[in-house]
Amino acid sequence: MKPKVGMIGTGYAGLVTGACFAELGFEVLCGDIDQKKVDLINRGIPPIFETGLADLLKDLRDKNLLRATTDTSEVVQFSDIIFICTGTPSTEDGSINLDQIEAASKDIARALKDAEGFKIIVVKSTVIPGITENFVKPLLERFSGKQAGVDFGLAMNPEFLKEGLAIQDFRVPDRVVIGTEDEKSFESVKILYESFTCPIMHVDTSTAEMIKYASNAFLAIKVSFINEIANMSEVMGADVSEVARGLGFDKRISPQFLRPGLGFGGSCFPKDVKALASAAKSHGISAHTLDAALKVNESQPLRAVEMLEEEINLENKKIALLGIAFKPDTDDVRESRVIPIAEELIRKGATVIAYDPLALENAKYFLPETSILVDNVNAALRSADAAILVTEWDELRNLGPEEFSSMSGKLIIDGRRVLDWKKLSQAGFTVKVIGNVN
Ligand code: UDX
To answer: In terms of residue numbers, what domain contains 247?
Structure first.
């Protein structure tokens, strides 16, 4: 009999993971406090944009393999394995905010009190090393009156899902990491992954938590590293695309995450790097590499504004921002690098006109309120004095002289090194590129 799975939290990680477990044939019940999200999921409609999720949810609903409820106790009663997938945003000082983890742990514990059988609680949320053992476990024990490892199991199973590719990343992971303090919890969670061919690591919970943070932090450092190499290449006359290609041939480096641009955004890299650095410092340990990666990431988007100012005075100018989402194929604007760019442009007296194929709705909550949001690229370019390509959507990569000619100015900043610089230059445009071009 396949174990039944409960997902507490239906964000990018929780809903995709629940849907993919259901696709593997496990019965899944998702729990969320947001009734609107629950209703959408029960109609087979994802409350978030994620490639392939709409079709998957609809199919699962038709097969009655995935449902949602606002009742956490129903999820606990139904499930043999319950995942905590609630958010862990940053607090003001960059440290991890555990409010949602605390609320979910207490709700699960209260339901665990009267529950039958040996249930396994699995933390999937990205939490600082030690949180599962020293924060979640005491809450579960205190509010259930039961003992971890004896009356219920406890594990930590981080996700490594990229937005826009999350379903693929679940289906074909590089590794599965399961952190437990006891054997039974490990064996129970391992059953969910028995069809996977990748390495399955059994570590303790703190090690599992650190593998997740160290993975994200390393990838973020890699991005900031290539961005600094791009800035150096600009002034030293190197072609950073070829530099990145040369690095990538080294198997120890790999070609991935060496795309220079305006920096990293999203709901993970910025918050995870800040949280790990903050946790290290709270233990009296320096985090110089993490601090440096964040510092580069804060200044990098402003390079685009500096490039504009090398050519024009920004006062009263109209600047088209092409792309708002933190990366292509998502509607997520959290920590997008367009935010500091828009804020700086407005601070310097320019007018911002921003376009994105998918993220306009979310843009309203993140861009300065004086930003003008438009639903097509021509409306952004029309009569703009200059344009910055911020997010490398396919639609935007292919823009050429014809589209840009509706601008009143001739200045284009390619923040992601994806435009046809030669064709645009030959058409009389001044194209400035992060990392320059040779
Ligand atoms: C990341 C991790 O990749 C994933 O494993 C983890 O589970 C969640 O966080 P995500 O934030 O969805 O995933 O996006 P990712 O594709 O990693 O890109 C993160 C940011 O880095 C984006 O803003 C992207 O534009 C930027 N980036 C990425 C670069 O600037 N250059 C690169 O070469 C790669």
So the answer is: 213-299
